[in-house]
Design a protein that fits this description.
The protein is of the alpha+beta class. It has 3 domains: 12-96, Uridine Diphospho-n-acetylenolpyruvylglucosamine Reductase, domain 2, CATH 3.30.43.10; 100-223, Uridine Diphospho-n-acetylenolpyruvylglucosamine Reductase, domain 3; 232-307, Uridine Diphospho-n-acetylenolpyruvylglucosamine Reductase, domain 1, CATH 3.90.78. Helices cover 23% and strands 26% of the residues. The protein is built from 6 helices and 21 strands. The protein has helices at 54-66, 117-126, 142-147, 207-223, 244-250, 279-297, and strands at residues 27-32, 44-49, 71-74, 80-81, 87-93, 102-105, 108-112, 129-130, 151-152, 155-156, 161-167, 173-177, 183-184, 187-188, 194-201, 203-204, 232-234, 257-258, 261-263, 270-273, 306-307. The strands form 7 sheets. It has a 5-stranded antiparallel sheet with strand order 6-7-15-11-12. The protein has a 4-stranded mixed sheet with strand order 1-2-5-3, covered by helices on one side. The chain starts with 26 loop residues before the first strand and ends with a strand. Bound molecules: flavin-adenine dinucleotide. Residues 38, 72-80, 94, 113, 138-141, 143-145, 147-148, 150-152, 186, 194-195, 225, 232-234, 306 line the site of flavin-adenine dinucleotide.
């Protein structure tokens, strides 16, 4: 057959060339980030990959720096709002087994950044190690929880972090001990690196008593979260000595909606994205609620959800 006249099917179409093609890492173009975020909305990442190990990740990270390509990591996607225009750089997800390990060495646990926080909490409780059981109802990964110092009124992850292994922009690894780490309410100084994993220093305790405490927290925590939908996000950080939920209710903002974004009626600190919701709906709703609380109550709420 004449090669020139042969029609090209979609499957045969040449793959787009990317700046990562020589690295031996599978990189996709135009990955829909809606698939990777709890809200289920947002545009595409220009480049996306799930490296198989630290060496592969290092090659991608270093290439991003060489070519000035912006880089972000997505964990469980429970705290990000991706704009409808997407992300114009590389998004990395640490889903490979090399990043999801949980290694119990009493009384410490080494956890990979890609491990689900709930799995780490369960492993600790099963081993009779206390100190993180109150985090059992928080969605997402260890990496996301370290960046935002996940927690609540019972304590936060940062209190138990012994050290954190990070990857620097040149692809090299660094272990940051406590003297180089800072954790505050829903904030840490781990915003300049790719987190690979951490060591948690825990206390020995009776596993049966701990299990009961964890189960209680699970029931109480989950009863306060939206049910029947996963397209939700937490809007604001709790201010010192109070809750964002109470302020939203007091300001009369609970019934506000923008497009197909609404406030979850049973817990006013969550935004729920309906099937026709766009990123701008969520963003505008969060800003509108924030302005309402400021005008009515004189309190400046800090957004919890991170807009990319
Ligand atoms: C129903 C619901 C309940 C929630 N309850 C709580 C709560 O009680 N307490 C609380 O603190 N939060 C809560 N949150 C918010 C959210 O779950 C936490 O912030 C969580 O820790 C985010 O983890 P993630 O893996 O989903 O992070 P993502 O949303 O994927 O990412 C969050 C940030 O972390 C960065 N990141 C993630 N992994 C890495 C990594 N390996 N290296 C570098 N950067 C990384 C991302 O780039 C992004 O900046 C809740 C959210 C929902 C939807």
């Amino acid at each position: 057959m004449n090669q020139r006249s042969r029609s090209t099917t979609a499957a045969e179409a040449p793959r787009a060339v990317t700046p990562f093609d020589d690295l031996g890492v599978a990189v996709s173009n135009h990955e829909p980030l809606a698939h990777h975020s709890w809200l289920g909305i947002g545009g595409d990442a220009a480049y996306f990959c799930e490296p198989v190990d630290v060496e592969a990740l290092g090659r991608v990270v270093a290439r991003c720096r060489e070519r000035a390509i912006p880089l972000r990591v997505i964990g469980g996607g429970s705290n990000v709002l991706v704009p409808s225009t997407g992300y114009p750089g590389m998004v990395v997800r640490l889903s490979a087994p090399a990043f999801c390990g949980i290694d119990v060495q009493r009384p410490t646990i080494h956890a990979g950044a890609g491990a689900k926080l709930v799995h780490v909490v369960s492993a600790a409780v099963q081993a009779g190690l206390s100190g993180i059981e109150m985090l059992v109802d928080i969605p997402g990964t260890v990496g996301g929880a370290l960046v935002g110092n996940a927690g609540g009124h019972g304590g936060d992850l940062g209190e138990r972090v012994g050290d954190v292994t990070v990857m620097l922009p040149d692809g090299s690894l660094d272990i940051r001990d406590r003297s180089r780490l800072a954790f505050e309410s829903r904030w840490s100084n781990l915003d300049d690196c790719v987190i690979i994993g951490c060591r948690l220093d825990l206390d020995e305790e009776d596993a049966a008593a701990l299990t009961k405490r964890m189960q209680k927290q699970w029931i109480v925590g989950r009863s306060a979260q939206p049910v029947g939908t996963r397209t939700v996000a937490m809007m604001f950080k709790d201010p010192l000595g109070g809750t964002a939920e109470a302020l939203v209710v007091q300001s009369g903002a609970r019934d506000l909606r923008v497009g197909d974004a609404a406030i979850y009626q049973a817990h006013a600190n969550y935004v729920v994205a309906g099937p026709h919701c766009g990123s701008d709906d969520v963003r505008t709703l969060v800003e509108t609620v924030r302005s309402r609380v400021r005008e009515k109550l004189g309190v400046e709420l800090t957004p919890q959800i991170e807009v990319w």
